[in-house]
Structure formats: structure tokens, C-alpha cells
């Protein structure tokens, strides 16, 4: 993309309404624009990051054997009356009446709708196990929408639902989700720690939240510092292997790590030596639940269990805060100049800064780099504007592309351009061909 033809409305001033750094940077970098309280338009740069997060989520769900579909945002109130949640959900639910006076709602979550799909089509244990998921907008009329996309009213969520014949099988689905989430967040450059949590309006006893440690997080967390040493890495997982998934769950959840809802000071002191006790704040970027037959029983989602009985299916639901993640990644990765995107989610793979737009050699070198990078399947952002070098650098630093190639007449006389890491700030001179090769190599396997 050439910046002169792009739509990147960066702000010079720091917006006064934004209280936390990710919100400020998202506004300044022209990623989002508030449409009304807690509701945002995703401008082109922000939309690219959102799509990258979705892509990683889809890829990791496919790896775990989960099947994508798409349910609507608007739902019929009648389904929610069947589960008993229509009245119970309270003020957070946006209730709508259509022209025929039918009660509708903008879905805050989809347990009822997916259970209705399931019960209409599946009747036998032979069709199980089954996990269906979608990535769709949700609406929760939060009392205090704040921090930009972190606590929105309209927000994008990946929500998945498993259907299993027994509790045992459903707990494997729970473990499988935990494992696949660890991999998903790591690909986004995040450490998200599974912590024992409260299930709230979704229900059930087994639940973990995934938290990214950040001082601006809305959740209080208490944990054994050893949990921060764990990494998932590129281990091979067979998602059908019950013992392997269970072992990963145990590895990542056996140490004390709880949100303030479930924290127990006495247990914390008993289980964790003082030097390893940590109290901090975290951003909840996902949550997994096992709630058994809470929805299948009242809604009649039954299967033949192979022994002549019709039994309600065991279910769980599993969510990832897709739009919240954009903010969470920025909270975890920025400096005083702007965003520092992890390679997995960056909106463009690298920037090209032309220090002397209009200079024949500099223009030709930039064009050459631009084409060569694209030929490698990479998307560079080429700053081809007639701007001062300082302004171009400031924009690149603000929008946080992990790599920048700087091209100027002086370097070109020596046959070199400069490759700079946004994270370390270190630069290296090399030929344009070497810069392209280096960037292509960096993104192999990301
Ligand atoms: N049905 C279940 C799992 S699919 C569910 O709704 N879970 S949830 O309530 O925990 O939401 C899943 C994730 O969505 C949360 O972990 C959080 O990351 C994100 N989320 C929840 N509320 C908001 C909000 N108001 N703004 C942005 N993201 C949110």
C-alpha cells in the first residue's frame, strides 16, 4: 500500500477522552473512530489488525478440529425464554421489537441459538463430538463502556460451543480449547495466563479466564510467579489425544492463579511461598466454560447415547475477545513513541520510508523494494508522501510496524538501505535485496 493513496487519519493531539494508552494510540494512529458510546468504526489500519487476529483464531480453531459457521446478531427472545435467561440477563441485553411486535434482542452470546441449531439436526451420539464456533459481533449494554475497544458495548467475539455425549468427553473439549487458546494467544505475541474464575451469567462450575498482565487491566489477579515462566512454544499437539491435552492443562493450571472473584487468601498463602506471590492486574482476553446440561436440558437437546437412552448433551462454551485483543496487544506492546506490533498481527509487514521523495534514485529504489516485497507475498506500507523525514519516522513509529526500511540518496550511493527494528530501535545497513530477503525470512512461519 502506498501511503499517499491510503486512508490513515493520524491525530497530532492526544485525545483527551482516552484514559489508557491503547485507547489513545488507537485513536492517534487512526485505527478506530467512536460512533457512539462503546461503539466503534474500524478504520482501515485497525481493520487490518482485527482481520489478522480473526485469521489466527480461525487457523487455530481449524487445527483443533472445530468447525466455523455464522449465526446472526439478532435473535428471537423466545429461545431465551426457553432457557430462562431472557429475564435473568438483565439490563445488559439490548431488547428490540420488530414491526410485528415480536421481541428480539441483539445477541450478547449464543448458547441458546446454537443449542436450537443442534437440537434440530443432531439426534445420535454417532454425530458427536461436535464443536461449532463463529466470530460475530455481540452487544452488551455495559453500564460503563470505557477504554475504547476494551470494554465496548458492541464488540467482536469468537464464541465456540462443544456438544458431547458425556461429562468426560465434554471435559476433553474443555481441555482442547484451553490448549488451542494458549497457542492462539502466543501467536499474537501475548502471554495470556489461564486463571480460575467465576462463570457469571453463562453458568457452570468449571471455568478459566485467560489474562494478559497489564496495570490498566480491569481484573485483579493473584498468582504464583512461576506461571509467567511457562510458554507453549511450537509443541506438536494431537488434539484428539485426551491424555496429552489433560497434561497441558495440568502444566498450565496446577499453580495458583486466580482472579479476584475466586481468590482465597488463605489458600494462596498455604500453596505459594511468599517470594513467589504476586498480586497484579490483568485484561481478560478469553474465557472457557463447562456447564454440562444447563441449556440442553431445558431446551431438549437430546441424543441417543447408544445404549437405548435419550440423554441431554453435555456442553461448554469458549470465548475469545477478538476486538478487545487489539487493545490488549497494544497495552502489552508499546513505548513512548507509539505501538510496537508483534509480527503475528501487524497491519503491514514493514514500512518503506523514502527520505527524498522526487529524487530519481531514491524513488526507483523504493519502487523496487515495494515490488520485490509484494512479490514475496508481503504487504509493505510505502510512505511516498512529500513530507519531512522526521514526520515520516514519527508516523511509522506511531503505527508500530515491526520493521522499517529507510531509503535515501546518501545510502544509495554506497548501495545500501537501512533496516530498523521498531522494537529494539537498532538499524543495520544492507543492500535492498538483502533487506527484502531478511524480511521475507522473518515472516516465514509467522
Ligand atoms: N458464551 C461465552 C463464551 S463463548 C461468553 O460469552 N464468554 S464471555 O462473557 O467471557 O466473553 C468472552 C470474551 O469476550 C471475554 O473473555 C472478553 O475477552 C470479551 N468481552 C466480553 N465483554 C466484552 C466487552 N464489553 N467489550 C469487549 N470485549 C468483551
Concise structural overview:
The protein is built from 14 helices and 23 strands. By secondary structure, the chain is α+β, with helices and mostly antiparallel strands. The mean pLDDT is 97.
Which oligomeric form is depicted?
single chain
Can you give the mean pLDDT? Answer: 97
What CATH calls the topology of the largest domain is BirA Bifunctional Protein, domain 2
Query: Number of helix segments?
Result: 14
> Between the first and last Cα atoms, what is the distance in angstroms?
20 Å
Give the low-confidence spans: none
CATH class of the largest domain, named Alpha Beta
Instruction: Describe the global form.
Output: globular
Name the CATH superfamily assignment of the largest domain: Bira Bifunctional Protein, Domain 2
CATH architecture of the largest domain: 2-Layer Sandwich
Bound compounds, each kind once, are: 5'-O-(N-(L-cysteinyl)-sulfamoyl)adenosine
Biggest sheet statistics: 9 strands, mixed
| Proportion of residues in extended strands | 25-35%
The portion of residues assigned to helices is 25-40%
Please give the domain count. 2
The number of strands is: 23
Structural class: alpha+beta
As a whole number of angstroms, the C-alpha radius of gyration is 24 Å
Amino acid at each position: 500500500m502506498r501511503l499517499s493513496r491510503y486512508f490513515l487519519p493520524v491525530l497530532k493531539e492526544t485525545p483527551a477522552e482516552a484514559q489508557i494508552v491503547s485507547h489513545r494510540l488507537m485513536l492517534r494512529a487512526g485505527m478506530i473512530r467512536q460512533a457512539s458510546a462503546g461503539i466503534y468504526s474500524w478504520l482501515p489500519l485497525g481493520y487490518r489488525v482485527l482481520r489478522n487476529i480473526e485469521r489466527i483464531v480461525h487457523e487455530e480453531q481449524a487445527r483443533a478440529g472445530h468447525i466455523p459457521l455464522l449465526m446472526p446478531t439478532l435473535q428471537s427472545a423466545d429461545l431465551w425464554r426457553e432457557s430462562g435467561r431472557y429475564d435473568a440477563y438483565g439490563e445488559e441485553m439490548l431488547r428490540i421489537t420488530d414491526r410485528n411486535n415480536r421481541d428480539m434482542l441483539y445477541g450478547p452470546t449464543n448458547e441458546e441459538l446454537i443449542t436450537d441449531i443442534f437440537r434440530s439436526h443432531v439426534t445420535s451420539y454417532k454425530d458427536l463430538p461436535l464443536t461449532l464456533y463463529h466470530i460475530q459481533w455481540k452487544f452488551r449494554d455495559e453500564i460503563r463502556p470505557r477504554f475504547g475497544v476494551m470494554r465496548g458495548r458492541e464488540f467482536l467475539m469468537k464464541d465456540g460451543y462443544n456438544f458431547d455425549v458425556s461429562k468426560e468427553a465434554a471435559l476433553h473439549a474443555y481441555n482442547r480449547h484451553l490448549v488451542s487458546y494458549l497457542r492462539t494467544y502466543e501467536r499474537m505475541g501475548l502471554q495470556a495466563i489461564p486463571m480460575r474464575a467465576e462463570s457469571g451469567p453463562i453458568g457452570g462450575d468449571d471455568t478459566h479466564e485467560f489474562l494478559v498482565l497489564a496495570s490498566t487491566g480491569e481484573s485483579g489477579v493473584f498468582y504464583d510467579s512461576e506461571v509467567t515462566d511457562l510458554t507453549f512454544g511450537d509443541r506438536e499437539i494431537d488434539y484428539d489425544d485426551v491424555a496429552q491435552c489433560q497434561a497441558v492443562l495440568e502444566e498450565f493450571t496446577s499453580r495458583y492463579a486466580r482472579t479476584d472473584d475466586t481468590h482465597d487468601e488463605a489458600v494462596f498463602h498455604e500453596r505459594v511461598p511468599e517470594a513467589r506471590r504476586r498480586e497484579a492486574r490483568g485484561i481478560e482476553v478469553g474465557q472457557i466454560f463447562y456447564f454440562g446440561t444447563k441449556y440442553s436440558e431445558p431446551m431438549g437437546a437430546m441424543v441417543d447415547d447408544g445404549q437405548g437412552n435419550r440423554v441431554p448433551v453435555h456442553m461448554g462454551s469458549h470465548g475469545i475477545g477478538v476486538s478487545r485483543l487489539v487493545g490488549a496487544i497494544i497495552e502489552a506492546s508499546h513505548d513512548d513513541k507509539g505501538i510496537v506490533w508483534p509480527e503475528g498481527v501487524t497491519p503491514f509487514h514493514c514500512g518503506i520510508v523514502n527520505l527524498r521523495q522526487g529524487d530519481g534514485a531514491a524513488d526507483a529504489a523504493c519502487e523496487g523494494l515495494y515490488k520485490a516485497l509484494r512479490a514475496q507475498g508481503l504487504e509493505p506500507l510505502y510512505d511516498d508522501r512529500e513530507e519531512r523525514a522526521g514526520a515520516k519516522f514519527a508516523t511509522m513509529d506511531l503505527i508500530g510496524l515491526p520493521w522499517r526500511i529507510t531509503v535515501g540518496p546518501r545510502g544509495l550511493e554506497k548501495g545500501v538501505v537501512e533496516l530498523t527494528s521498531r522494537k529494539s530501535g537498532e538499524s543495520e545497513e544492507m543492500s535492498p535485496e538483502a533487506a527484502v530477503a531478511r524480511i521475507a525470512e522473518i515472516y516465514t512461519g509467522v
